[in-house]
Amino acid sequence: MTAAAPDRYRLGWIGTGRMGSVLALRLLEQGCDLTVYNRTRSKAEPLATRGARIVDRPADLSDRDVVITSVAGSRDFAEVMTGPQGLLANGDRVPAMVIDTSTVSMEVSQAIREKAASLGSALLAAPVSGNPKVARAGKLTLAVSGPRPAFEQALPYLRMLGQRVTYVGEGEAARLVKICHNLILGVVTQILAETTVLAERGGIARADYLEFINGSVMGSTFSRYKTPALVNLDFTPTFTGHLLRKDFELGLDAARQLNVPLPVAALTHQIVVSLIGQGLGDCDFAALLELAARGANFPLKPESRQVSDGLDTE
């Protein structure tokens, strides 16, 4: 594949869950030729009204130039790539490039990278940072690793998906970057939860405490877009406790392999396991606030205040 205008390649998309559907729509909105597969076909059908074609198997995308994947985890990625109906199952014809935006293990990714390379296809690991609302606002960030020439060719599409794209090296480097990122995600959310309960127990409204944090040097895009959930106790999932636990376990496994102690992350992992044990695993991981409040025997109530999430859509 040689460098070309962004509208030249025929694109495939695998996975139209909460994040995948938003990202696929961004490509359609910019005029891309897109064909889509999702395990539950009905979840992909809204994209058909926006110009996408829908197929019944990942293998049906083998004639695409570039295929992008957005799946829940390592097992799903392996299934859609090398399973009986997988994209790479028929070695006679495969896309020139696969871009995976999921968070999966480095071992699974490396195995699929080698399989793809043996068939003449380049794999870019391009995990994204942000939730679907961040994606809709065009403010996702992506860490990307793999062959540098493939990255340069894919860059126009990667920039359609998010506002910042960082090439971090060859192989599985981006997988490790994203795993490290999600360890920070969990640790920061836990300390936000603890201190918010502490402040409220002392008589301070959650909205007021978080407004101060967001305006201080400790504020961030993340703390701002989680503020409405914490203030109004809206734990509608954007990223569940189960998914956070999966990523912490990927991180702790990487730390064992690289002989790096992660004491704070290890403790937070146990708290996330407790979150799931308390029946909150299907909620957004911001439910760590509820877990912290239960630990303090302090019942929370929604404050019913309209607060900004800091996201201005494009």
Structure description:
By secondary structure, this protein is an alpha/beta fold. The protein has 2 domains: 10-171, 3-Layer(aba) Sandwich (Rossmann fold), CATH 3.40.50.720; 176-295, Orthogonal Bundle (N-(1-d-carboxylethyl)-l-norvaline Dehydrogenase, domain 2), CATH 1.10.1040.10. The protein contains 12 helices and 9 strands. The protein has helices at residues 18-29, 45-48, 74-82, 106-118, 132-136, 148-161, 173-201, 206-215, 221-232, 241-258, 263-280, 288-295; strands spanning 10-14, 33-37, 53-54, 66-69, 97-100, 122-125, 128-129, 141-145, 164-169. It has a 6-stranded parallel beta sheet with strand order 3-2-1-4-5-6, with helices on both faces. The protein has a 3-stranded mixed beta sheet with strand order 7-8-9. The longest helix is centred in the middle third of the chain and has 29 residues, at 173-201. It is globular.
Q: Round the mean pLDDT to the nearest integer and report it.
A: 94
CATH superfamily of the largest domain: NAD(P)-binding Rossmann-like Domain
Parts with pLDDT < 50 across at least 5 consecutive residues: 1-6
Q: C-alpha Rg, in Å?
A: 20 Å
Cα distance spanning the termini = 31 Å
- Helical element count? 12
Main β-sheet description: 6 strands, parallel
Structural class: alpha/beta
Kindly report the CATH topology of the largest domain. Answer: Rossmann fold
Approximately how much helix is present in the residues? 40-55%
Number of structural domains:
2
CATH class of the largest domain, please?
Alpha Beta
SSE topology string: EHEHEEHEHEEHEHEHHHHHH
Find the count of extended strands (DSSP E, 2+ residues): 9
